[in-house]
Design goal:
Blueprint: E1 2-10, E2 16-25, E3 30-34, H1 41-48, E4 56-61, E5 64-65, H2 71-77, E6 78-82, H3 93-103, H4 108-121, H5 138-150, E7 156-160, H6 168-185, E8 188-193, H7 196-202, E9 205-209, E10 215-219, H8 221-226, H9 231-237, E11 247-251, E12 254-258, E13 264-267
Parallel strand pairs: 3-8, 3-9, 6-7, 7-8
Antiparallel strand pairs: 1-2, 1-4, 4-5, 9-10, 11-12, 12-13
The protein binds adenosine-5'-triphosphate (ATP).
Length: 270
Amino acid sequence: MIRFDAVRKEYPDGTVAVEDVTLEVPSHGVVVLVGSSGCGKTTLLRMVNRMVEPTSGTVSIDGVDVRSIDKVELRRSIGYVLQAGGLLPHRTVADNVATVPVLQGTSRREARSAALGLLERVGLDPKLGDRYPAQLSGGQQQRVGVARALAADPNILLMDEPFGAVDPIVRDQLQQEMRTLQSELGKTILFVTHDIDEAFALGDEVLVLRKGAEVAQRGTPAEILANPADEFVSRFVGAGTSRRTLSVREVDGRRIVVDGDDRPTGVLAG
Ligand SMILES: Nc1ncnc2c1ncn2[C@@H]1O[C@H](COP(=O)(O)OP(=O)(O)OP(=O)(O)O)[C@@H](O)[C@H]1O
């Protein structure tokens, strides 16, 4: 479990990115932080691996204050996936994935062979292991980013808009694959996005944040959609908008789900 206890972050220029946040992220679940640009999501996420130190308050993992853990050790023990993939451009894909295990003492050969297995696991042809990041598509690079984050078999994965830079179709695929992977691996995942649909697609729980990373509402996607806490959340999730208001029409004997503009969104099973 990750716990934020009364954390506040004021940057040296006086910007208060995180006001006063207390929250828990239970183990083995996916918690998504969603909010507009600049609301403090990234700052909060980076406090977990000490890329940002809180001005006050405490972040702990399974009851251990992260400040008591060596920064380098901590970062190697937590998977971190960024929007740009964060891959090292002058290393091959396989070497990128193998970097942390090698630093942790795994032999190069063993780490490389594990890396090829991980590439397969995230849906890539292991042959791509010999390429350089620039020789891959954006979606493939994101997959490598996920493989690299998983390489040291961390309990915790921090994901900062990892699918933000790819087209909607690839994004959809990556989200589905992440769900499958998570059902197999059961990591503790803290995921940041500004896209409410992505939050609803991936989160066991979703936290809608306002400025200063203040939690406007926390709940399952269904709870938030069914019962938005206030006007801010309601607007953010689009509850009550034509896109969210679905109804059923019968067409040629099949039951089609349509949105408030009568546009089809799916077919009812059964
Ligand atoms: N190093 C820094 N120095 C000063 N201000 C910063 C720094 N990093 C972030 N901020 C400010 O802190 C606030 C929160 O930023 P943060 O990146 O955490 O938000 P975010 O919700 O992740 O936004 P985005 O979705 O755009 O990445 C913003 O006002 C931002 O400009």
